[in-house]
Known about the structure:
The chain has 113 residues and is mostly beta strands.
Amino acid sequence: QLRLVESGGGLVQPGGSLRLSCAASGFTLDSYAMGWFRQAPGKEREFVASISASGGTTYYVDSVKGRFTISRDNAKDTVYLQMNNLKPEDTAVYYCNRGPTVWGQGTQVTVSS
């Protein structure tokens, strides 16, 4: 069974950091590009970052460039999103995904003082 499980969300003050993890099971992670998306209240889900199967190529939405870093450890079947200098506008539910059809349940990130 294909499964993605996100963890690492929480409440953090502006300027703080969090690292999200996405544990994959039911498929061979190193064969797939992976991504992170987020959805804020009342807004559509938006792309945040993606990483190629080998980890050699990454893409980011402009609003997180220089602050977020996507990485992967294929040996651990895990994808990460390191988020630094968090801003209130980063508040959202963050989802890990593999292609258009495999999604995790999401983890809440709240940036507030």
